[in-house]
Design brief:
This protein is an alpha/beta fold. It folds into two domains: 212 residues, Peroxisomal Thiolase, Chain A, domain 1; 126 residues, Thiolase/Chalcone synthase (Peroxisomal Thiolase, Chain A, domain 1), CATH 3.40.47.10. It is 31% helix and 20% strand. Strands 3-2-4-5-1-6-10-9-7-8 form a ten-stranded mixed sheet, with helices on both faces. The mean pLDDT is 95. Keywords: Transferase. This is 3-oxoacyl-ACP synthase.
């Protein structure tokens, strides 16, 4: 079977993750319940005429994918695979509002057409004139892991030699108001909103787009190798350690072989029990990393987590702003990423230095 190498990265997030090395310009915002994006100059990537018709998720997806392809020195790919939880929710809201405002009459279909979950993948393909395999996964908090697993399998089976894979989600004003109403987003006027050691329910929400150019060939500029990806629907807190040990064992690795673990803490006191249990026992002697205090929580935030993990391997250092303990290693060869939300949609990703 062919191996899977990450040869290019592109990330748009609540931090300046473009035109930088690795989070040296990161800013910690503990005062807002919804984090806004640090956006690039879109007209540098997209024709100005097209920009005004695109939702921010589409624009961010196009920019992030373009950055990944440029980084990998690729003109096109054999497949485009995306993951998203909410899709282009902004256009969905526009269309539903138009239905109500116009009494279901005289509706223009533009917002409806652009509100589908596969809009980002389609727009990227149109820009590249890529008529190859194009699929979007909408699987909640493992949407990105589903896309990554599909991409890895296609490369392993020698069905493709290069795949563009990414995770994209955006926020919408009305949807955010509903999330606040049901308590999914933390209550206002309770700042600072810390992620580690939080004592309240709810999360600080965010949005973003992260893309990875995968190839079956190791190159001079390769970042890391994807060893394995596993998805599980539901686990109890006490069962996670056994699943991780089995996952590592299937790759001929043990807990002691993991040089760093990237955990998806999101500040929800109940959801974070899964991570705290691992941090205090299984990985007590392992450098630990967290990232959602920088990106916010959203369905494909794990794509930002993978970007962080890959950067750690490439730069062989962990920035202070993402450390959740003080342990360090002389070298970071193997990194495990684990993400879940409220005990469901568990994703495990294992990456290593090339």
């Amino acid at each position: 079977m062919k191996k899977t190498y990450i040869n290019g990265l592109g990330c748009i997030s609540a931090q300046k993750t473009f035109d930088t090395v690795f989070l040296e310009e990161a800013e910690l915002n503990e005062n807002d319940t919804i984090l806004s994006l640090k956006v690039p100059v879109y007209k540098d990537f997209i024709p100005p005429v097209a920009i005004r018709r695109m939702a921010k998720g589409v624009k961010n997806g196009i920019v992030a994918s373009t950055l990944a392809l440029r980084d990998a020195q690729l003109e096109t790919v054999d497949a485009i695979i995306t993951g998203t939880g909410m899709g282009c929710i902004e256009d969905s809201e526009k269309f539903l509002k138009a239905i109500l405002d116009n009494n279901e009459q005289f509706l223009t279909p533009t917002s409806f057409i652009q509100s589908t979950h596969n809009t980002v993948g389609g727009q990227i393909a149109l820009g590249l004139q890529c008529k190859a395999y194009n699929l979007t996964y909408v699987n909640g908090s493992v949407s990105f892991e589903s896309a990554l697993l599909d991409a890895k399998m296609k490369i392993e089976e020698e069905d493709t030699s290069s795949v563009l894979v990414g995770g994209i989600d955006e926020t919408g004003d009305y949807t955010m108001s509903l999330f606040k109403l049901i308590g999914f987003i933390k209550e206002e006027n309770q700042s600072p909103y810390t992620v580690l050691n939080s004592t309240t329910k709810g999360v600080v929400f965010g949005e973003g787009a992260a893309f990875f150019a995968l190839e079956n060939e190791k190159k001079e500029h390769s970042y890391a190798e994807i060893l394995d990806v596993e998805i599980l629907n539901k686990l109890e807190v006490q069962d996670v350690e056994k699943r991780i040990i089995a996952f590592l064992d299937s790759n001929d690795l043990a807990i002691t072989d993991v040089d760093a673990v990237v955990l998806g803490y999101n500040g929800d006191v109940e959801s974070d029990l899964y991570y705290k249990d691992l941090a205090d026992s299984t990985f007590a002697n392992t450098p630990q990393v967290y990232y959602k205090h920088l990106s916010g929580e959203y369905d494909t935030a794990s794509a930002f987590g993978l970007w962080v993990g890959v950067k750690i391997i490439k730069n062989q250092t962990i920035p202070e702003i993402v450390k959740s303990n003080s342990l360090e290693k002389s070298a970071y060869k193997t990194i495990l990423l684990y993400n879940q939300r409220n005990g469901i949609d568990h994703g495990f990703t294992l990456i290593s230095r090339c």
